[in-house]
Design goal:
CATH class of the largest domain: Alpha Beta
CATH topology of the largest domain: Rossmann fold
Number of helices: 14
Structural class: alpha/beta
Number of domains: 2
Helix content: 40-55%
Bound molecules: S-adenosylmethionine
Number of strands: 7
């Protein structure tokens, strides 16, 4: 399990999910099944875990890890944005908790051979779901200059978006860019040497993040899923989200804040006419971060941000 992935903030995630024996919980991002296993243990003997992952490798791996808990486990190779359909197809009206641990597993980054890491020489794929149509190579070789600039800027927060996109367009005219290393080297060369040396992170980090977000439609799916997830909770049910960069965390924070608002009247309305009722209570006033001990033991956990809500 640890070879596949080391779960981030496991104790905190379980705490915020408020596991109840006999409860029904969804792990929307099964990955290495570390969180799923803890959930299964916490809801024994007759609880149900619904596990979803868009990566078939994760589902296959989870089948082995969670074997001791069958038949109280239901695994689905799908995107978590379909969680409402999956829950209803199982004949359930609602669930007691949902966990989303978005981001990449260690297996995807280091062992999948799909070009997620700029430190490896692999095909430029970056699909979490190998059945999806668009690869990172499709984006870098076929999207026009403006579209590349936009994703590098919006999804990578890359200050050199324009010069990097120009370098890509020029290079691909000679030969398509097919590997993660070719792309990483090209980005490195497109940044002035002194600036590359000054940067704390590899100059390709942000572009790789942008491509991964684009290929897997990560922000769009997260945005669409959060309200659906709350709809699927029983009253008192919990939604806990672990995110890994500021773009995701901003979406989680703003969506939770919006759903916790009691009044939705325009700010200048003299009196409240909406009789609005908050949909959730925010359980994490401030974002929760991993402890120093966890970061030391698992450096991949260093950027984890946890937020949770309870349905009213
Ligand atoms: C950080 S790992 C999860 C690790 C897991 N919590 C554990 O304890 O091992 C993230 C997983 O979420 C999956 N994933 C990301 N976005 C998804 C989506 N929209 N739908 C389903 N799975 C998704 C990835 O394929 C990956 O396996």
């Amino acid at each position: 399990m640890a070879d596949y992935h080391i779960s981030c903030m496991p104790a905190e995630a379980v705490h915020y999910l408020n596991l109840k024996p006999g409860g029904v919980y969804v792990d929307g991002t099964v990955g290495g099944a570390g969180h799923s296993r803890l959930i299964c243990k916490g809801i024994q003997p007759d609880g149900l875990l619904i596990g979803i992952d868009q990566d078939l490798d994760a589902i296959r791996h989870a089948r082995e890890v969670l074997a001791p808990f069958f038949p109280r486990v239901s695994l689905h190779h799908d995107t978590f944005s379909h969680l409402d359909q999956i829950i209803h197809a199982l004949g359930l009206d609602g669930v007691d908790g949902i966990l989303l641990d978005i981001g990449l597993s260690r297996h995807q980054l280091e062992g999948s051979g799909r070009g997620f890491s700029f430190q490896r020489d692999e095909p430029l794929d970056m699909r979490m779901n190998a059945e999806a149509e668009m690869t990172a190579a499709d984006v870098v070789n076929h999207w026009d200059l403006d579209a590349l600039i936009r994703i590098f800027r919006d999804y990578g927060e890359e200050r050199r978006a324009r010069s990097i996109a120009r370098a890509i367009v020029k290079a691909r005219a000679r030969q398509p860019l097919e590997s993660s290393k070719t792309l990483a080297d090209l980005i490195y060369r497109s940044v002035p040497a002194a600036a590359a040396r000054r940067q704390k992170i590899h100059p390709a980090t942000r572009v790789f993040q942008a491509l991964r977000i684009t290929v897997n439609r990560e922000l769009d799916r997260l945005e669409r899923t959060l309200p659906k997830a709350v709809d699927c909770l029983n009253p008192g049910g919990r939604l806990c989200v672990l995110s890994f960069h500021s773009l995701e965390d901003r979406i989680v924070k703003q969506t939770f804040r919006e759903m916790a608002r009691t009044c939705t009247c325009p700010p200048r309305a003299p009196v409240c006419t909406c009789r609005g009722k908050a949909r959730v209570n925010v359980l994490t006033r401030k974002v929760v971060r991993p402890t120093a001990a966890e970061i030391e033991a698992n450096p991949m956990a260093r950027s984890t941000r946890l937020r949770a809500v309870e349905k009213c």
